[in-house]
Amino acid sequence: MKHEQLDLFGELGFAKQSTNQLQRFGKLKFSIGSTGYDSPFNWAVKDLIPALGFGVIYGPSGSLKSFLAIDLCCSIASGKSWLGKTTTSGPVVYVAAEGQLGVSRRIKAWELANETTADNVFVLPQNMFISERNAQDELIEAIQEIEAFTQQKVQLVVIDTLSRCFIGDENTSRDMTSFIQGCDRVKAETQSGVLCIHHCGRDESKGARGSSALRAACDYEFQTKRNGKTKLLKFVNTKQKEGEEAPDLELEFDTVELGLTCEDNKPITSLARLKEPTIKNTMEAEPDHPILKILGETFGGRAKRVDLRQAIYPTDSKPTAAQRKSLSRSIAKLQESGRISVEQESPSRASDKDIISLAH
């Protein structure tokens, strides 16, 4: 495979540095020291989706993640706020690799619920093998022509789903890296963000399915967790490279009639989000938090961080990076709520030797 060098000074959302801020050495241009630290950072959705970021929304099948992605796309395309955050308005390209009809009906439901149109959402009803050069070229050319047609900058490219646009084995870093590099080229050539809709594995706690190279490459990552068969879902920010992770949100979708009937004369419906999100209070929702229970029943109210982690994830293999981060977030939330205290070995970072105790 021929490796291509991409100019990613505009990566994520930083405005490209002017040429007088860069100094050439050989054939390469460098910034020096903290030069450019004050460059503005741009968001497609403030504090959630970087303008030029690469990210993933993942969850099990049926977790409403595609409905949520449509909600996001229509909000950006129409300039409406999303989950209470401002958006940068502009066209969105939606690669509907799992079928166009369902996507069109979801967009229509959003339009009816929001009493506006989403004419700036451009749906591609086919898959695109992003690791292949010709697919990248076709997508880049289409985006450029959409921009010429609308006279607006395409803000986001959504790939739904990753698996339908993937060649090879998701579990190998080589094939996953090839896919990521394809997304990087589309992102660099178009200066548009790329978002992939993806599935989790059998064990949801281990994160998105496939090679860990995907999460490592993400600038942001979100997980969807549906509450049984209800229309409620929990939206969890599991990674945010350029800022603090957002609090967990609870979102609710409602059934919307599309003004059509089927052959049985029954209304054709879809789902749309009508209500504002609510911040999920983990402590209220889980009065018997597993950390509190293990601290009390197993350790008598006091344990080292490493021992607590091993008790929560009692397997022969080491906890994944996602599990370690989830545990750290839970400990921080419990500490903030006054349910536990943490005696840190180091004042600047968490340590396996930290002592975690139940509050009295």
TrEMBL record:
Gene3D superfamilies: P-loop containing nucleotide triphosphate hydrolases. Transmembrane segments: none annotated. Residues 350-360 have a biased composition (Basic and acidic residues). Residues 335-360 are annotated as: Disordered. Pfam families: AAA_25 (PF13481). InterPro entries: P-loop_NTPase, RepA. This is AAA family ATPase. It comes from Vibrio astriarenae.
